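Q: Hi! First time asking for a complex rather than a single chain. Here are the components, and I think there are two in total. Is that enough to go on?
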Amino acid sequence: QVQLVQSGAEVKKPGSSVKVSCKASGGTFSSNAISWVRQAPGQGLEWMGGIIPIFGTASYAQKFQGRVTMTAGESTSTAYMELSSLRSDDTAIYYCARDPQGGTTVTSYYFDSWGQGTLVTVSS
Amino acid sequence: SYELTQPPSVSVSPGQPASITCSGDKLGDKYACWYQQKPGQSPVLVIYQDYKRPSGIPERFSGSNSGNTATLTISGTQAMDEADYYCQAWDSGVVFGGGTKLTVL
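A: Yes, that's all I need. Here is the structure of the assembled complex.
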């Protein structure tokens, strides 16, 4: 099964940007969609969008359109999520998750592997 | 936008069956899956494509999906099953239910 290892915790000022990485090992990477899901303190899961590394095509949830950018490096088996114009309500744990089904579009019916999560704290 | 509704909490006695529901418009026409999340941990897939169990998930976890409701059932619930459970489906994007806290009393 694929292992996903994320970058460490971040503390950011309001208005700044954060970039979180997710490195995959032990399985296929390029042809499987990687999604980003966040969880605010004490709250539920929220999908932000996903990317298929081999195509470089990303699909974003409407809520984050214009503020999020997802990229991936095939040679490094690493996916990235950058969120800009940070606000205090962006404080959350950010997870990457892998869709085990291949395809040409981000259509993720389930995620079989999750990263350990990256805590992003937005505070002045 | 599409919504999935779960009860905020469910309580069960050890050894008894527990059922957690997930409701959405014509959810039975979509695939549903379920995740278990324990405090401080990442979600773990316990049911996918309505009723399939990933390897390593105990047989006491089962799922069904029909009409407007998907159901996660845990037979013979154990103390270790106490966790938050989230349903998920796809509708022009990934949609999660609000989560259900399962308490094993």
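A: Strands of chain B lie at 9-12, 18-23, 33-37, 44-47, 61-66, 69-74, 83-90, 94-96, 100-104. Let me know if you'd like any chain examined more closely.
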